[in-house]
Each structure stands twice: as C-alpha cells, then as structure tokens.
Design a protein that fits this description.
By secondary structure, the chain is of the alpha/beta class. It contains 14 helices and 16 strands.
C-alpha cells in the first residue's frame, strides 16, 4: 500500500566554499543552483536555511530578477526560515513556513492531514562561551526561540501536524521543544552527525539528520483513527552501492557534475599560470618517482594499489576539481602539496608522501627515521566511516603492506 511521504532537508543545503565575504566562485554558484533545481525535480517539500547557506541565499533571494529565478527554480519558494531576515533592501525575506497536505492510506484512510513545516537556525558559533555571529552580508539571524514563539501559533492555525527543521545543537532543540508544546517533530542538523535514538520533550519527537546525505533518515509517523499521532519511529538507511540508482536522478547528477566540473576546470586553468611553490624548486614534496629510485619494491606494491589510481576514482565521477573530495586523493592538499591537476599533476593520487610526509630533505640526505606513520590511526584520517564505510584495517593493509 502506498504511504504518503514528505522529503525535507534540515539545513546546510548549499556549499559556501569557506565563504570569506567575497563573491562565491562560479563553480560553487553552479553547484548550488543545481541543488535547487534537483530538489524541485525530485519533489522535495521543504528545506531549512542555516547560517552556512546565507552566501548563496543572498543571490537566490535578491530582489533584482527574483521573479525570473522563481519561475526557473520553483523550489526557491519552499526554502523556509522563521528567523532569517533581510538586513538591507536588496533581498527578500524567505517564506517562514510551508503547509503540505497529505491523504492517509492507513489508520484513517482518506483523511487529509495538513503538515506545517518551518525552519530555524542558530547563529554562527564564534567563541567558547556560546557567542554567535548573527549579522551577515544582506541577512540577520533573529533569536530562534523568540521566532518560534511567534511563528508556531500562527502555523498551528493552518496545520494539523507541525515539523520544525532546526540547524542547531541538541541543547537548543531540547529547549525549542520544551518551550513550544505544539511542535510534533523536530528534525535537527548541524556540522556533526548523530544516529542516536529519538528524544521526546513535551509532545515533540526529536531526530537528527546525517551529514553529507550518506544516510537517509526515515521518520515513520503512525496515526490513529481520529488523525492524532500514535507513534514516531526513526531509522537511517545507508546510501551505499547496495541501493540501486534511480535512472532519472542519476541523469540529473551526471549532468550537474559535468556542468560544475567544467566551471571548476576553467578556474583551475585560469590560475595555472600563477606562481606556485613548484615553479621555484623549493617544494618540500618530491613525488613518488623520486621515492622509487631507492624504494623500488615499495613503489611496485604502491603502483598496483588503489592509492596509485585515487584521482581516477574522482575523475570517473567528475569530482576531480571538487575541493570537498580532492584532499584524500592527492598529496598534502592545501598543505603545500597538490594544488590542481593543471599546476601540480605530479602530486595527484595517494602517494608515499601522503602518508609519510614531505620527502625533499630525506631525498637529499637519506637516513633512517624518516616518515613513520602509526596505523591504523593515520589511515582513518581519510578512511572515515562516512567516506569509506567498508574500511577494515587488516584486509586493506594487506593490499598496500610494504
């Protein structure tokens, strides 16, 4: 029997590319636009604005050209926030909530339920004592608890069931539930992931979204015959290779990857002529070819391993320019090593110095004591549970032992 389903995102929807107050790069803008487009095409019902999303929201919600963008990307009108407000006259306020109507198939077949969905975000944490940044270019973040007290009663008049998408830590979500007895569900998200069991405060059930969408959170709501909630049960579904790809979604993903990879390639080519440490001869990294002159046996093991072809893994997915992926597939990214495929191709892939550190001094004066790395501690810096869910040290080490 078909079950009515709503798809929501609790926040940190877009990449801010470590936003520092300047204009977002073209490839980041392209990537974020595809997120809005895909969420609309896949019939998502709502997404919450968090403080990391504000750089792109400044472009999405600017008054100039808003109607044209809204026609092109209708999901814009389902990106919600009750406490993000414009700080100047250049941007519109996001919608504070959306109401989605569903028809029950079980419990009370045929009964229509109005589900109200709103969003809240904390300010950006800036200090050890709970200090938070609430002013940003074009936007300000109002106190989420005051915003909730204002918006929840209004939403209650229009909805039978209230869902709050909250980008905030556990103590804040608990307070939110305690102060607002009309909230039925809080779906929380923040920088760290949690797969803890649901919590209950007042009538609210609190569950957590998993970072990077590597697990799909599924909250099942059981309804009594009179339409009231009987129970809410949560689980997480790992989105690994055992989950078959949807053909239409896969086509969208591939098209999007090609689009923003092309933009990333343009940027990388444009910066390839700039001076870099490898043009000066002062690089602390020498590359695996230099290592191989003395360590031929170890190099032979490496050359037949997945480490030697780590960049190809990204290229097959059109992710070879993605800052969020490259770091674990090259030598010392953003640490004086690999810069891009155009400027430092000799440091692509997971090479000797990825694990053992810069080798120029050792190559100049070979001696014992260089490059010790503790295992498996060093391995799990990249082979994390989310990035490498099948990682198991004993069998993986056997493939590269040298």
């Amino acid at each position: 029997m078909e079950v009515p389903t709503l798809f929501v995102d609790a926040g940190n929807v877009f990449t801010d590319d470590r936003f520092n107050g300047v204009e977002l790069p073209a490839e980041v803008m392209t990537k974020n636009k595809w997120v809005v487009k895909a969420y609309g095409e896949e019939h998502h019902d709502a997404a919450n604005i968090s403080y990391p999303d504000l750089p792109y929201m400044a472009d999405l919600l600017k008054k100039d050209g808003y109607d044209k963008r809204s026609d092109e990307l209708p999901f814009m009108q389902r990106i919600v926030s009750a406490n993000v407000q414009p700080a100047d006259d250049t941007c519109r306020a996001p919608v504070p909530f959306v109401v989605r109507e569903i028809t029950l198939k079980r419990g009370a077949p045929g009964k229509k339920i109005r589900v109200g969905i709103t969003g809240l975000t904390e300010g950006k944490p800036t200090g050890p004592n709970g200090e938070r940044q609430t002013s940003f270019p074009h936007f300000k973040i109002d106190d989420p608890f005051e915003a909730a007290k204002r918006i929840i009663p209004e939403l209650k008049k229009k909805a039978d069931f209230i869902v709050v998408l909250a980008y905030m830590p556990a103590d804040m979500t608990q307070r939110l539930a305690s102060e607002n007895p009309d909230i039925d569900t809080i779906i929380a998200a923040r920088q760290t992931s949690s797969m803890d069991d649901p919590q209950h405060f007042n009538r609210a059930t609190i569950v957590n979204a998993f970072v990077q969408t590597k697990y799909l959170g599924e909250l099942r709501v059981y309804v009594k015959g009179d339409g009231t909630i009987d129970n809410q049960i949560n689980r997480y579904v790992q989105l690994d290779s055992n989950i078959p790809d949807d053909a239409k979604a896969l086509e969208t993903v591939n098209t999007a990857h090609t689009d923003f990879t092309n933009e990333q390639s343009k940027t990388a080519q444009a910066t390839a002529t700039k001076t870099n440490v490898f043009g000066s001869g002062d690089s602390p990294f020498v590359g695996s070819q230099t290592c191989a002159t003395c360590h031929a046996e170890a190099n032979d093991v490496w050359s037949r391993s997945g480490h030697a072809h780590a960049m190809a893994t990204l290229e097959r997915k059109n992710e070879q320019f993605d800052n969020e992926c490259v770091g674990c597939h090259v030598v010392a990214y953003q640490k004086g090593g690999f810069q891009s495929l155009y400027t430092t191709p000799q440091l692509a892939n997971v090479q000797c110095e990825s694990c053992h550190g810069p080798g120029s001094d050792h190559a100049a004066a070979p001696a014992k004591g260089y490059g010790f790395m503790s295992t498996p501690v060093g391995c799990v810096q990249c082979h994390t549970k989310t990035n490498s869910p099948d990682f198991e040290f004993t069998s993986y080490w056997a493939r590269i032992k040298h």
